[in-house]
């Protein structure tokens, strides 16, 4: 749609620019005729041929200016990312997570407070509760109550304004983000699939054996389906899993 609008815009611009160029040539010729007794014919020739170039110069100028304006958006975006506040350290050697953490999966929120940005109201206002390992819990609340915010808090996508979260007695604010985020997992409402092979989607870091991947597929009741695909684990997945519907 936007691409199509470019054509009428360019044509409209050309009409205006040609008109300006035409007017300049017209007045150059007019003045040459009016002052034919005083001005050198060589100068008249020079001024008219230069005025003929004006249209081209104006078109190039306008195109370049609009290109700069379009492309500067990329620079603006990079600047925005550069100025973004850095997250907590990815690895924190002074507080390594115990190698088998989390063993039980006991989650405790202690007087936990969270706000989305400095200056905004608290979204979670001192929540305290405890979930035992292996326990299944449903969180119920009206829209905007802060259910999704609890999940963001667990992964430290947003840092707390107060209080703490303990998983198996380890305060998660003390850990490096990689240690935290690689040890817990989330199943989001909308599945995320990248373009690439099925194998890359299941194991982006390429660390697992085929056997493990097939077992995971079996647990998800997808073994027969994937087994039926010609390329098996190397089946190409379209972006967003378009070819799986
Ligand atoms: N990115 C954000 N910036 C600022 N405030 C936000 C942001 N996301 C959510 N909020 C605010 O945080 C509060 C809790 O939002 P949250 O998404 O956790 O609610 P929810 O319980 O998951 O709601 P829903 O049932 O609609 O999913 C809401 O009042 C919302 O306005
Ligand atoms: Mg939500």
UniProtKB/TrEMBL annotation:
Q: What is the annotated localization of this protein?
A: Endomembrane system
Taken from the UniProt entry, a GO cellular component term is: endomembrane system
Keyword field: ATP-binding, Membrane, Nucleotide-binding, Repeat, Transmembrane, Transmembrane helix
- Organism annotation: Timema douglasi
Does this UniProt record's set of keywords contain Repeat?
yes
Q: Which PANTHER family match?
A: ATP-BINDING CASSETTE SUB-FAMILY C, MULTIDRUG-RESISTANCE LIKE PROTEIN 1, ISOFORM I
Q: What InterPro entries does the entry give?
A: ABC1_TM_sf (IPR036640), ABC_transporter-like_ATP-bd (IPR003439), ABC_transporter_C-like (IPR050173), P-loop_NTPase (IPR027417)
Bilayer-spanning residue ranges: 12-34
Q: How does it sit in the membrane?
A: Multi-pass membrane protein
| Keyword Heme assigned | no
Could you tell me what this protein is called? Answer: ABC transporter domain-containing protein
- Indicate the principal place this protein occupies in or around the cell: membrane
Span of domain ABC transporter? 124-224
For this UniProt entry, the molecular function terms from Gene Ontology, in alphabetical order, are: ATP binding; ATP hydrolysis activity; ATPase-coupled transmembrane transporter activity
